[in-house]
């Protein structure tokens, strides 16, 4: 009897202990649940629904005719010539824009770090392109490249870069340069301002110590300045890359993907597929591919950051 | 190791001249301490020697070569910064070997030299750490190791110990003294702490408001301050300064006491009489030069600082060696050791 009682109370105790443990583990999540639910609703729901379109046949011409089709869209992508043209263009568009924006932005930041007269005014002016609505800057640049009203083609001729003044936006070989140049003009300020902020946070003593240690200007730049900027460079390059790869406005307004698809990038392709051909399912499938590619890129960059960046 | 000569060095920012007529000559292997209150220009002077500040006027010679327009990287000086200025993205070994790396030395040579200076400073176990994983004292050592590893002509220290706590400061002070002895290198050391100045220096340069007040061996400054500023600045606690008038061939304090001081001044000339707290003894009420009442008694164990209110003169600080049974409000006499007193004219220049 007494033994029985003991066993019962022991197992009872065990059960109570487990429920207590579960409670203990669950408690913090309970407190977090409002924000978790909100995040799921706001971020994940549209994402999941959007991705689910990729596996459905959704054509707005036949609104009633929605059905699950599995990986059919992705098989179609695999043999879609236009997709691969757009993928290649996306790469050059993103790579060219980011590289030029970054290197010119860094140069500008280094210049702005030097004290000179009217630096503050200059700094404000540099931010200006950022404040111009994208559609307006796209229109301005489209006009600048137009030989009838814009000066650029005539300048190119004077510089010997073109044989006669024509609109490069209409030339399949050069059309992509137009939006890239516009994008560089538009995006330099982002790099200039963020890198300048980062430059200004480097203590002067680092430069002084390096100068006394015998470092030349270039050695100071490569061994002190760059490592200090590295964390900011990784983050800004990642953000801008993702953003530019998704950035359809400039191209859409300037060329509409035109000159025989020579400026068609994935995001404009998605846009035209969805809103001109009204094929939402296929557009979603292409978006999913772009999403995966960008995720891979971001992971790679963050891994590199872990390996190389030592200043925090 | 090098001889350093400063000839009529001056420094201005725009129209404001902050330093003038700096003439100094440092011998090879000498330990020089530049000392003064904040804003006196001691760091600016050090930075001019390093090449981090431009020299507005005069000539600077290192080993007989005029270096006014020589870049810091070509002056072959090493500097230890107040904030240490370690490169946060490099480990201890690379921090110490950075100047050698810059010079393009072979990896083995760099490794050997850093290992040697790390051993000197007891940093052997820390070579692979990043600065952020070090304590303040260790960072300080790395900063010194960085200077030692490159074997420069001159070592410059810019208040290297002021970010450390008191006990660590005393320990590092000793290490720097040993280091100087072992390396026998020229060192120029900036501090506002007179204890560091007095203990480390072969010679001290006292600066105030951009001008040299006095240059001399540590005890020389203590015993024969050239002016009131040095008298006040060197020695802790500070020297007592009181007004005195020269009448009837005697120096008369404001409490009417006539002092037997061997000095000849013009009649009725007013001067400053200075006496260090440690040169005053406490005697019976009518036996000393002044009668005072204890206001505050600070007991430090080894010494006691007694702040004494003296009628017509004001407060006088007395340093008593050991503990003393005195209460606030007690009255007693103060006897000045006149052999060790100081006299300054109205302009603050020493008379004897």
The counted number of beta strands of chain B is 20
- In percent terms, what proportion of residues of chain A is strand? under 5%
Query: How many structural units, i.e. domains of chain A?
Result: 2
Number of strands of chain A: 2
Can you tell me the residue ranges of chain B where pLDDT is under 50 for at least 5 consecutive residues?
Answer: none
Weakly predicted, low-confidence segments of chain A: none
By CATH, the topology of the largest domain in chain A is MetI-like fold
Mean pLDDT value of chain A:
82
What's the SSE pattern of chain A? HEEHHHHHHHHHHHH
N-to-C order of helices and strands of chain B: EEEHEEEHHHEHEHEEHHEEEEEEEEEE
Q: Could you name the CATH homologous superfamily of the largest domain in chain B?
A: P-loop containing nucleotide triphosphate hydrolases
Rg of chain B, Cα atoms, Å: 24 Å
| Tally of domains of chain B | 2
What would your notes on this structure say?
The complex is a heterodimer of chains A (312) and B (352). Helix content of chain A is 73%, strand content 1%. Chain A has 312 residues and is an all-alpha fold. Chain A has 2 domains: 2-53; 77-308, Orthogonal Bundle (MetI-like fold). A two-stranded antiparallel sheet of chain A has the order 1-2. In chain A, helix 9 crosses helix 10 (217-245). Chain B folds into 2 domains: 4-233, P-loop containing nucleotide triphosphate hydrolases (Rossmann fold, 3-Layer(aba) Sandwich), CATH 3.40.50; 240-344, Nucleic acid-binding proteins (OB fold (Dihydrolipoamide Acetyltransferase, E2P)). Helices cover 24% and strands 34% of the residues of chain B. Chain B is built from 8 helices and 20 strands. Chain B has helices spanning 42-50, 92-103, 107-120, 136-149, 166-183, 194-200, 218-223, 228-233; strands at residues 4-13, 16-26, 31-35, 57-62, 65-66, 77-80, 154-158, 186-191, 203-208, 211-216, 240-247, 250-253, 258-259, 270-275, 280-283, 290-299, 303-310, 314-321, 331-336, 342-344. In chain B, strand 17 (303-310) and strand 18 form a beta hairpin. The two termini of chain B are 37 Å apart. The mean pLDDT of chain B is 88. At the A-B interface, helix 9 and helix 10 of A face strand 6 and helix 2 of B.
């Amino acid at each position: 009897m007494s033994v029985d009682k003991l066993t019962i109370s022991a197992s009872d105790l065990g059960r109570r202990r487990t429920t207590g443990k579960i409670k203990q583990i669950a408690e913090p999540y309970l407190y977090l649940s409002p924000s978790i639910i909100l995040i799921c609703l706001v971020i994940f729901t549209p994402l999941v629904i959007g991705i689910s379109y990729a596996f459905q046949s959704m054509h707005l011409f036949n609104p009633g005719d929605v059905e699950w089709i599995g990986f059919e869209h992705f098989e179609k992508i695999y043999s879609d010539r236009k997709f691969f043209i757009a993928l290649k263009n996306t790469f050059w568009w993103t790579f060219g824009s980011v590289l030029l924006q970054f290197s010119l932005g860094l140069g500008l930041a280094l210049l702005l770090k030097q004290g000179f007269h009217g630096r503050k005014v200059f700094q404000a002016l540099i931010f200006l392109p950022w404040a111009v609505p994208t559609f307006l800057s796209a229109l301005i640049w489209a006009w600048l490249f137009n030989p009838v009203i814009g000066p650029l083609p005539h300048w190119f001729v004077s510089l010997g870069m073109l044989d006669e003044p024509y609109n490069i936006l209409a030339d399949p070989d050069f059309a992509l340069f137009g939006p890239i140049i516009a994008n560089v003009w538009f995006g330099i300020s982002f790099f200039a301002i963020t890198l300048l902020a980062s430059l200004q946070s480097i203590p002067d003593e680092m430069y002084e110590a390096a100068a006394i240690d015998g470092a030349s200007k270039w050695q100071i730049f490569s061994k002190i300045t760059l490592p200090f900027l590295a964390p900011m460079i990784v983050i800004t390059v990642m953000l801008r890359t993702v953003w530019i790869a998704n950035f359809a406005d400039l191209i859409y307004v300037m060329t509409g993907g035109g000159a025989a698809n020579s400026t068609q990038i994935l995001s404009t392709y998605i846009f035209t597929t969805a809103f001109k051909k009204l094929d939402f399912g296929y557009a979603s499938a292409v978006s999913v591919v772009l999403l995966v590619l960008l995720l891979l890129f971001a992971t790679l960059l963050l891994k590199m950051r872990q390996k190389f960046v030592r200043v925090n | 190791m090098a001889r350093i000569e400063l000839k009529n060095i001056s420094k201005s920012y725009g129209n404001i001249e902050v330093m003038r007529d700096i003439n100094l000559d440092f011998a090879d292997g000498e330990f020089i301490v530049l000392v003064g209150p904040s804003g006196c220009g001691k760091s600016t002077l050090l930075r001019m020697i390093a090449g981090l500040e431009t020299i507005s006027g005069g000539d600077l010679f290192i080993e007989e070569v005029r270096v006014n327009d020589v870049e810091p990287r070509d002056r072959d000086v090493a500097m230890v910064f107040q904030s240490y200025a370690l490169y946060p993205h490099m480990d201890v070994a690379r921090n110490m070997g950075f100047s050698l790396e810059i010079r393009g030395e072979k990896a083995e040579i760099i490794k050997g030299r850093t290992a040697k200076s790390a051993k000197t400073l007891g940093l052997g176990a820390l070579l692979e750490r990043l600065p952020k994983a070090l304590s303040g004292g260790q960072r300080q050592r790395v900063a010194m190791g960085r200077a030692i590893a490159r074997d420069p002509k001159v070592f410059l220290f810019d208040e290297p110990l002021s970010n450390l706590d008191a006990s660590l400061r005393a320990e590092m002070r000793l290490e720097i003294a040993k280091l100087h002895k072992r390396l026998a290198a020229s060192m120029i050391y900036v501090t506002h702490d007179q204890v560091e100045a007095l203990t480390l220096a072969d010679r001290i340069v006292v600066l105030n408001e951009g001008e040299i007040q006095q240059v001399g061996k540590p005890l020389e400054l203590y015993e024969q301050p050239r002016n009131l500023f040095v008298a006040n600045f060197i020695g802790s606690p500070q020297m007592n300064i009181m007004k005195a008038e020269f009448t009837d061939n005697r120096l008369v304090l404001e409490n009417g006491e006539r002092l037997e001081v061997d000095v000849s001044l013009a009649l009725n000339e007013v001067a400053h009489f200075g006496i260090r707290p440690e040169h005053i003894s406490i005697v019976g009420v009518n036996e000393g030069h002044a009668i005072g009442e204890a206001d505050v008694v600070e007991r430090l164990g080894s010494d006691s600082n007694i702040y004494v209110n003296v009628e017509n003169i004001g407060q006088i600080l007395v340093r008593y060696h050991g503990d003393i049974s005195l209460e606030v409000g007690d009255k007693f006499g103060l006897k000045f050791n006149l052999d060790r007193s100081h006299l300054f004219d109205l302009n603050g220049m020493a008379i004897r």
